[in-house]
Amino acid sequence: MRFNQGIGRALCRLASADFLQPAAHQRGLACTQIAFEINHGQRGHHLSQCGAQRQRGRLVRQVIFATGIIGRMHDGNVLKERIRGWGRELGFTAVGVSGIELSAAETGLMDWLNAGLHGEMDYMAAHGTKRSRPAELIPGTRSIISCRVDYLPEIKGGAGAAISRYALGRDYHKLMRNRLQKLADRMTAKIGNFGYRVFVDSAPVMEVAIAQNASLGWRGKHTLLLSQTGSWFFLGEIYCDLPLPPDTPITSHCGTCTACLDVCPTSAFIGPYQLDARRCISYLTIELKSSIPEDLRPLMGNRIYGCDDCQLVCPWNRFSPLTQEPDFAPRHGLDHATLVELFAWTETEFNDRLAGSPIRRIGHERWLRNIAIALGNDAPAAEAKAALLTRQDHPSALVREHVAWALSRYPG
Ligand code: B12
Ligand code: SF4
Ligand code: SF4
Predict the structure, then answer these.
(1) Per the residue annotation, which of 18, 75, 201, 335 is the catalytic one?
(2) What H or E segment, with its residue span, contains residue 88?
(3) d(CA 59, CA 37)
(4) Does the beta carbon of 191 lie inside 6 Å of ligand 3?
(5) At what angle do helices 363-377 and 397-408 cross, to 10 degrees?
(6) Residue of 285, 307, 311 with the most ligand 2 atoms within 8 Å of its CB, for mutation
């Protein structure tokens, strides 16, 4: 990545682009002159050079005009608003700007890692301080553009398998990455080359802390980012070398509410804002590769991929908009499928049907492991027991162990 050009070039191109040009021309001032002067802090020098070649009255008008532009642009606020607008046009539901100072989040991250609350998610500890120091990850980073995409789909629901809402449709990584790239391309087209990198989830990036700084919401006690239009959204970022002015963080609106902490089926919260990931059903069903601790299995109920409970109970999610993204609409009836149906999928069916879904990443073996637990938690039924029996000699020891546990919960 080239991180060698600053906001100067950006404003220069922006000034000579669509929205400033007419105004500049009306006043008989070449907009590139304004931009150059703004860019490189050589205000007096350039204006006096230009002015020396002009009438005194003309110079005064130029200075007044340029001062107005400087007032509007010198801290990048105009550019930031343009970026926000382009982001909205591309389908982001919110766009904000954060600086790169994340020292408070770094302390929280280190405490969390030192306490071992990340369990087997070694990638969370693998990058030293790069995760909390954006300029160590990407040298030259000066600002971060944080973007939100809403994912709440309309669902049929039912008494079957519970799959978290974010995973009912297509994987969001591709959509988010493409859209962030389009925003970066739009910025390049409007302001010229600048240094940037786009990130979605998997990179060592503190997405929630960044989005919080970028005013996209406040941190809910469940640790997720929350806004007055709920928390059913994904986050993605553009790290860039433009010194954009950061937005002002929003104050918390959790008040005395503790609904998310109280509802958690596995008591995964140590306290407000502190999650022991090792107990979270999202971790157990998605991240954990090995056997699921026996004491937690009965608490998982019918949740076979992720968990939405701490969000479902949040009062702010009553105001959540449904997603406008066709990609996030449920596929293959995942929003109302029965456990028995899903347990019957062969590995080929699993891979074919879940192509493009985030669920595919856990593989068929863990899929069966998770469903076996849910069948073990279900009210005993002949059909469910018969389904479990079909897998009791499965080649995978992991599957066999969970099937045996589930069968042990059936009478007789
Ligand atoms: C690892 C991870 C997980 C882990 C751990 C979650 C966690 N809370 O840490 C597991 C697998 C459990 C998980 C689950 C889920 N995840 Co997740 N996850 C991540 C990931 C990759 C990193 C998060 C992280 O840095 N954790 C490390 C710890 C240290 O961070 P933390 O909890 O934020 O800790 C801070 C607080 O404790 C704070 N703190 C401590 N004390 C105090 C006190 C006060 C007063 C305050 C304000 C703060 C505070 O300091 C710490 C540092 O900032 C991010 C993507 C990313 N790259 O950021 C997605 C991400 C957070 N996950 C996301 C989602 C959607 C989920 C699930 C909803 C999925 C699901 N339905 O199953 C669940 C929700 C569970 C939950 N309640 O958090 C989204 C959240 C979007 C949003 N609206 O915020 C993200 C941002 C992915 C994305 N790109 O959109 N996830
Ligand atoms: S996702 Fe579920 S298990 Fe994880 S913290 Fe929230 S309520 Fe608890
Ligand atoms: S449920 Fe209550 S405490 Fe939890 S995030 Fe929502 S408002 Fe905050």
Answers:
(1) 201
(2) helix 77-89
(3) 14
(4) no
(5) 10
(6) 307
If you measure from the C-alpha of residue 276 to the centroid of ligand 2, how many angstroms do you get, rounded to a whole number? Answer: 10
Q: What is the mean pLDDT of residues 369-373?
A: 98
Best CA proximity match to 213, nearest among 250, 255, 254: 250
| 61-116 pLDDT per residue, tens | 333 333 333 344 446 899 999 999 999 999 999 999 999 999 999 999 999 999 99
Ligand 3 pocket residue status of 222, Cβ below 6 Å: yes
Alpha helices per DSSP H over 164-245: 172-191, 207-213
260 Cα distance to chain centroid: 20
Which strand ranges, in their side-by-side order, compose the sheet holding 143-150?
Answer: 94-98, 143-150, 233-240, 196-199
Q: Is 201 a catalytic residue?
A: yes
**Nearest one of 282, 340, 308, 404 to 159, comparing CA atoms:** 340
Report which bound ligand comes closest to the CA of 280. 2
How many angstroms separate the CA atoms of 83 and 16, rounded? 16
Is the CB–ligand 3 distance for residue 138 below 6 Å? no
User: Is the sign of the CA dihedral 274, 276, 281, 284 positive or negative?
Assistant: positive
